Write the structure tokens for this entry.
Amino acid sequence: MDMSDIAARGLVLLGCGKMGSAMLAGWLEGGLPASSVSVIDPYPSDWLQDTGVLINQSLPASPAIVLIAVKPQMMGAALPNLQLLGGGGTLFISVAAGTSIATFEDILGAGTPIVRAMPNTPAAIRRGITAIIGNDTASAIDLDGAELLLSAVGQVVRLDSETQMDAVTGVSGSGPAYVFHLIETLAAAGEAQGLPAELAMQLAKATVAGAGALAEAAEENPSQLRVNVTSPNGTTQAALEVLMDEGDGFPTLLNRAVGAATNRSKELSRG
Ligand SMILES: NC(=O)C1=CN([C@@H]2O[C@H](COP(=O)(O)OP(=O)(O)OC[C@H]3O[C@@H](n4cnc5c(N)ncnc54)[C@H](O)[C@@H]3O)[C@@H](O)[C@H]2O)C=CC1
Ligand SMILES: O=C(O)[C@@H]1CCC=N1
């Protein structure tokens, strides 16, 4: 399968809110024709209506891929829309947090190829990362198809076990929110030190974006990159002594935050 096969047979998107539209923006920017995408969503956004995709119209009989991007709590109402699809080699991909492959197998049948995926919103600018795992029916070709579609909006990693999905959700699925909060709080801290709000925000955004890009591009690991910023007895050391505090510093806080997200993912999958 390549992107032209997906374009020829059609892609169905069930739910096009924040995550669905982030991915759709990335696919359209990557050249997927809008006319090959059918969206089902009772509340299509203005942005979606301007893209030229087919919205709430009859679906192709056997689309290449159906991607499910509704909230876990909406799944019961949304999935019956899809029961008539499949059978013709359609691959189902779900990005729903905390919704197990078994849940989809109950509704769509265990003989249906299903890939569970956890993307993140930087997909909108094709800088996302998505973790995937297939059910027993999903073939190597199905996993390659899922990887092809999702790699159009960023990196793709394959998991060994579905149980890893809860922690992945806690790290990279929810992770952009932690980084956005870091930007907000870094800018607010700059303001507290007397900088104008706009300047503080520009400094914070560029610092996070630049450090992220350097962390990805550099040969050194992030620990060494941190050391490179830290002059002995200088300003960074003064800050890191606060941030790396064993009691209430970053390590403790992030461990608790990622743990809370992971546990919530586990809770959602228990229903
Ligand atoms: N927002 C994020 O950063 C991420 C979200 N996810 C997962 O993506 C899924 C969607 O999350 P968001 O996009 O954030 O939520 P959202 O609330 O922005 O989008 C959900 C969309 O589903 C639509 N919808 C509601 N009932 C429907 C139905 N019966 N049929 C079809 N569409 C229906 C809504 O109108 C809405 O546009 C969730 O399962 C979430 O766990 C996964 C990774 C990251
Ligand atoms: O907050 C959530 O439940 C979803 C899953 C990962 C990011 N957003």
User: Anything to note?
Assistant: The CA atoms of residues 65 and 240 lie 47 Å apart. The chain is about 50% helix and 15% strand. The two ends are 34 Å apart (CA to CA).
